[in-house]
Amino acid sequence: MELFVATFLKMFFIMTPFFVLSVFLTVTTDATLLEKRALAIKVTTSVIVISIVLLYFGKYIFAVFGITLDAFRIGAGALLFLSAVELIKGNKDTQKIEQKDISELAVVPLSIPITIGPGTIGVLLVMGAGFKNAAEHFVGSIALVCAVVVIGLMLYFSHIIKKVVGRQGLLVVSKITGLFLAALSAQIIFTGIKNFLNI
């Protein structure tokens, strides 16, 4: 249960849900409620598939490139820290998204790189390689899917959240998420350094 809760919370915050929600609201401004909900389902499905692939095949990627888990921890933590800084400053992935059929935005950019950015990819690879047995892999996978589903539900009911919280509220929560990410990235880097130096 402890592994499930820890993995769920870690993945939920790493995927910067409130930032994802604000981008989703931006790209679906002129969309109907039906289109928004269809897009939310597509984004959720694609994020689950991409995340599970990264989680399960991370250790093979390490083996192919001869990268140690701790070296990758340090690199992934650094990337995650940069994402946290950008989130706090308010300019994370602020690239302009072209106006087109919104269903085409499900995988790129809403799944990658908005929801699953470089820092998230790094953490998924490290997490997958760190699981010791099949039971931990299974619990971790379920927790990951649950975290993505919660984010998907936020997108599905984005019109309600927008009314309740407002754009300014989302901005504030995004910055708080950035602070959590910064602390999490520091922990990942310190763990990598500690293990690398055998402290």
Structure description:
The chain is mainly alpha-helical. The chain contains 8 helices and no strands. The chain starts with a helix and ends with a helix. The model has no long low-confidence stretch (mean pLDDT 88).
Beta fraction of the residues?
under 5%
Could you state the oligomeric state of the chains shown? single chain
Number of strands: 0
The value of Rg in angstroms is: 17 Å
Order of helices and strands: HHHHHHHH
Straight-line distance between termini: 29 Å
Mean pLDDT: 88
Please sum up the structure shown.
82% of the residues lie in helices and 0% in strands. It has helices at 2-14, 17-27, 33-65, 69-89, 106-115, 118-130, 134-156, 158-196.
Blueprint of the fold:
Layout: H1 2-14, H2 17-27, H3 33-65, H4 69-89, H5 106-115, H6 118-130, H7 134-156, H8 158-196
Helix pairs in contact: 1-7, 2-8, 3-5, 3-6, 3-7, 4-6, 4-8
What characteristics describe this protein?
199 residues; mainly alpha; 8 helices; 0% strand; globular
